[in-house]
Amino acid sequence: MKSERKYVVPCGKCRTKVYCIQCIKQWYPKMSELDVAEICPFCRRNCNCSVCLHTSGFIETSKINMTDCEKVEHLSYLMVSLLPFLRQICEEQTQEIEFEASIQRVHSSKVGVSETLCGNDERVYCNHCATSIIDLHRSCPKCSYELCLTCCKEIREGRLSGRAEMKFQYVNRGYGYMHGGDPLPESCLHQTPDDHVEPSVMWSADDNGTISCPPTEMGGCGDCVLELTRILPDRWISDLEKEARDLVLILDNKLTNLRQNRAETGTDMLCKAASREGSDDNLLYCPDSTKIQEDEELFRFQKHWIKGEPVIVRNVLDKVTGLSWEPMVMWRALCENVDSEVSSMMSEVKAIDCLASCEVEISTRQFFKGYTQGRTYDNFWPEMLKLKDWPPSDKFEDLMPRHCDEFISALPFQEYSDPRAGILNLAVKLPSGVLKPDLGPKTYIAYGVAEELGRGDSVTKLHCDMSDAVNILTHTEEVLLTEEQHSAVERLKKEHRAQDLKENLVRDGMDESIEEPNSDNNKEDTDVSEINDSELLPSGIRGEFKMSRDEMQGTAFTCPHSEGTMVESGGALWDIFRRQDVPKLEAYLRKHFKEFRHVYCSPVEQVIHPIHDQCFYLSSEHKKKLKEEFGVEPWTFEQKLGEAVFIPAGCPHQVRNLKVRNSS
Asked: Domain containing 347: what range?
């Protein structure tokens, strides 16, 4: 039998590598045969063969070269910036020691604090709020219940928030209910909302500040008084604060003189993202990575970052090798030339079904097929799936070393973002052997659609991260909706609205916006669709690394581009709220929580913490109401392919996927 002849393209540079036509089409669709003949993918350092995909150290990830003087400047800046936080920690500990002195009826200098045993590979959490504990806290000598100083203060002030682990268990009323139909008869027999209410147990402090271990209903034993304990050596925090304060007195003036002549942020690097009246922070800093002059731009970045403002850096993928983030390339990296256990583990994934807000098992191949071709339910409603933290972040560097290196090398402002050598990255400063927080990188792969569906949107709900983060959109894909799907979406939206009215989730006056989705009355909802072709069902991949118009509501801004260039529609719509607006944002959500749906499209029945519960996504309509009632407006913008978004810790944010996307 005559074998089929294969045509190959030799590399004109190295003259050793050859690529067959079929592989070029399958694995390098953006390269022509002439491109390969001139310089092959291996020479370009973006080879997608399984060997190269599993090779680490292929590229240099850190791009930082600095003199000793520059290192001193950076470390001085770090110390000056951190001192206020160190002082706050010290003040909280001093206050708690004063309470303990009052309880023991001795002078604060005579208070003895016992040390708890905690290994380097352990992390202590507050049993009530689940926050990490770094040093002083209260602990039960009988059951080891541990309470952070913030919760101690809240108990004494009579304003303790709900427990972190108290989650409402939603009932699955059936697929028909999720699309506006009646619930399954048997679902009505399940638990009622009253069954999920946290037990009404009073937990208060004595008049002298003593706090007892909570009762068993709240996770404690209820038998003992909580004792003050420490993790670090005695007075370690206060001594460190004093040393830092003395150094800052010397460094602060020198640092100010050194920086006062640095350039101001140019208007061509600012983009409007909000229209808050009387505010000077409506513009966000969004430099182009290809035009960044490191010294000056780092200073500009710090000016905005220190104020808690997000930063968008454009074209970060233009400065790396161009390794493909196509789904099949990632599939190849995970499944070829790996052991059978890993291959079996990666053959299926647990994705989030955005309509039901719960996990579903699906084969990895089927998930990626839906990524490129789209998926629908039986009634033609778009099926939105997403993968969060896949592969698991603790395996990412091992399973996909080449992609991990590519992502880290793409990170802008590596003084902050480099997880291995960033001089201003606090996680890098932690001693070796100490358990560090999970900082990624992580990969998020999600389907998406430009039109706001109202139910089943591909979103990351409102939440707040424990650390700063940077998110890069590495890949997007566009999938066309059929006319049949468009008709089904419009019909089902009306059924959803009728159900909302029946269950008192909306006011009667809000019905018109769904009946006429393109009317002037729904302008905030249609502006984004005008920017992004409403007939596209897109998807994308984004990755994340955590670090230590005049009427803008519901409208995304566009960063400046060179004249004559085509502006690509965004892959994700971001809403990031200012830290100072958090109390008002929480008040709005507590007031309107019954207007939202969560798991199985059930109405939200209980709120422990409006942001940390992660059960809210503010639609265009809700963002409009938030501004009208509380005067709060987020920074709203579209993230485009190759853009890095820096999100400050403490800023609540939400994301809606406008395209099928992949990000890290």
From this structure: 327-458
